[in-house]
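Cross-check.
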Amino acid sequence: MENNRLNRAVEQLKSTGVRMTPQRYAILEYLLTSLGHPTADDIYKALEGRFPNMSVATVYNNLRVFKEAGLVRELTYGDSSSRFDANMHEHYHIICRECGKIVDFEYPSLIKVEEEAAKVTGFQVENHRMEIYGRCRSCQEQESKEPLANRS
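Predicted model, tokenized:
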């Protein structure tokens, strides 16, 4: 765990007048150490043993505070639940259509695409989002192990 990253996030919250509660700290720490892109429910389930009185609403409220402070971004893909990403550096996601796994990957920024879109449409471009879909290695390996009769 990058303690510096957690400390910087805590200081950023405090500088905006956000009071650090033990639950808030635990949620932030979980987000910063999570390799996945957890839902609010994932975070709640991971922390309910430590904080039996914490509700899912508490998790959602804190995620909103973190989002407003620029510490996390909310990812919405299709009909699935919102997922939260504490990696605020410019990056993209590849999503498995079978299991829903989301993996970060780096790619040069698509600034030229934004510039061309603005020029062609007259829009003032604010940001972009690129999503790539496929099947993760685990799902591919699982399918190759299934008998042909079970495949749809």
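Helices lie at 3-15, 22-33, 40-47, 56-68, 111-121, 137-145. The longest strand covers residues 92-96. Passed to J.P. for a second look.
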